[in-house]
Amino acid sequence: MSTEDAVSLIVGLGNPGPRYAGNRHNVGFLVVDELADRVGGKFKSHKSGADVVEGRLSGARSVLIKPRSYMNLSGGPVAGAVKFYKTAPESLVVIHDELDLPYGTIRLKRGGGENGHNGLRSITKSLGTRDYLRVRFGVGRPPGRMDPADYVLKDFSGTERKELAFFVDQCADAVEALVTKGLEQAQNEVH
């Protein structure tokens, strides 16, 4: 992925609009916002149905993507960007919230199931493959019997917010390692 003309598409998953900005489900947006700051770019509307920033992360040509659709419909804009930038799904990195990891834990992997994550399900369906990279940002399990769908649509707690910027920064570092060093080396550094 780090060859001179190769491009990595880095998608942060979330829901558009201020109502959802602080939700656990929007952590992907927070990470790509951090990455956009690092490349000195501002998101611009793109015909794929997403907002994009083009730049270089640690020298690697990258396109940061925030679908303008709701999470459950992320696949259309993501597939549109893959087609527009003429990349293979293997060059796609998707950053998303993960209920099965403790808060702040970051894990990298290629492929696998969607674990009930509707954004991933939509992307997999639109691309026709699960063979893309995932950056999983742990948000923990909901307390008690709270519905997981309600939990991810709630804002981070006050305690979580105290460490959120640190974890978002760590996740952005993991994404940079992934696009510049490849999956195995990035996993060795992050895990």
CATH class: Alpha Beta
Number of domain modules: 1
Q: State which percent range the strand residues make up.
A: 15-25%
Q: Which architecture name does CATH use?
A: 3-Layer(aba) Sandwich
Question: Overview of this structure, please?
Answer:
The protein is of the alpha/beta class and 191 residues long. The chain has one domain: Rossmann fold, CATH 3.40.50.1470. The chain contains six helices and seven strands, in the order E-H-E-E-E-H-E-E-H-E-H-H-H. It has a seven-stranded mixed β-sheet with strand order 2-3-4-1-5-7-6. The model has no long low-confidence stretch (mean pLDDT 94). It comes from Saccharopolyspora griseoalba. InterPro entries: Pept_tRNA_hydro, Pept_tRNA_hydro_CS, Pept_tRNA_hydro_sf. Monomer. It catalyses: an N-acyl-L-alpha-aminoacyl-tRNA + H2O = an N-acyl-L-amino acid + a tRNA + H(+).
Write the layout of secondary structure elements.
Layout: E1 8-12, H1 27-39, E2 44-45, E3 50-57, E4 60-67, H2 75-84, E5 92-98, E6 106-110, H3 118-127, E7 133-138, H4 148-152, H5 158-181, H6 183-190
Parallel strand pairs: 1-4, 1-5, 5-7
Antiparallel strand pairs: 2-3, 3-4, 6-7
Helix pairs in contact: 1-5, 2-3, 5-6
